[in-house]
Amino acid sequence: MLSILGRPASINVRKVLWLCHELDTPFVNPPWGDGDPSRELDAPAFVALNPNKMVPVIDDDGFVLWESNSILRYLAASRERVDLYPVAPRERARVDQWIDWQASDLNPAWVYPFKSIVRRAPGYDDARMVASSVARWTELMGVLEQQLQSTQAFVCGDTFTLADIPIGLAVHRWFATPVDRPTLDAVAAYYERLSSNEGFRRYGRNGTP
């Protein structure tokens, strides 16, 4: 059985849990990194799986893989879910484009304000950094707004794809973080559209920011 190592509250772990729901793939979820001393991420047993000491890590019948978006791509491709991750190069590239945008542009923008406002993490108490990060976050959510105005449905078009998993979770974090937000009608409609998806309700809009 597929093993997904990582605390289930982690946004990156939740990506993989949600996808497994879409794939109807059974899994176990040992909650490494949840504060239990026996499951610390610097434990030799975990470091042997991922030297970066980060979750999630999967073990799929002996195949070990880390990096959440790589895991998403592998699982969708290995389960031959071409509806989620197309085979045609241009269609696949469009899905990859938005997955990579979420990781390289959108995610870094919300890290500082989220850790400051929601997590109250030490070292994240610079009000100027919060303000500048929120401004960048807002700018990037405007990029998503334009895309969703164009598709009027999901990130890559009329149908749900792999890109909607990381971006859907990021949109949930946008609405779950108490910052001043402009009105983004297409993003709000997308959020409600995703909320009809059982996997999103279970692993996204589930009370965990």
Automatic annotation (TrEMBL):
Q: Which Pfam families match?
A: GST_N_2
Traced from the root, the source organism's taxonomic lineage reads: Bacteria, Pseudomonadati, Pseudomonadota, Betaproteobacteria, Burkholderiales
The signal peptide here is none
Q: Domain GST C-terminal, which positions?
A: 88-209
**Name of the featured protein:** Glutathione S-transferase
Query: Which organism does this record belong to?
Result: Pandoraea fibrosis
Where is the GST N-terminal domain positioned along the sequence?
1-83
